[in-house]
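Quick review question:
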């Protein structure tokens, strides 16, 4: 079992309702739970199939150097990157920026 956090933005209500079957919604769009790897992967499949124009980040405890891992779906300024085996987050410039 691993602790899991899912944060959603602008996803359809039916997907939010689906997440509430397995996880506790502690704030609007923020879900937590202690689930198996198999359940986490099944939840990810539901997220991937239903996030539409929204965005999602899923983070969970792992045996990695940092103690956690995460993955994302949808458009967001925060972009996961790998830096010498560590998963970090880089920021893309804002839309319409000359940077």
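Suggested answer, residue by residue:
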């Amino acid at each position: 079992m691993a602790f899991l956090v899912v944060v959603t933005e602008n996803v359809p209500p039916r997907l939010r309702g689906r997440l509430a079957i397995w996880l506790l919604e502690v704030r609007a769009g923020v879900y937590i739970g202690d689930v198996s790897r198999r359940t986490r992967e099944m939840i990810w499949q539901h997220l991937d199939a239903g996030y539409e124009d929204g965005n999602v980040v899923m983070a969970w405890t792992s045996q990695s150097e940092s103690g956690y891992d995460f993955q994302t779906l949808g458009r967001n300024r925060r972009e996961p990157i790998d830096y010498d085996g560590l998963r970090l987050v880089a920021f893309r410039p804002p839309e319409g920026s000359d940077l």
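Why it works: The first strand starts at residue 2 and ends at 9. Helices lie at 13-22, 37-50.
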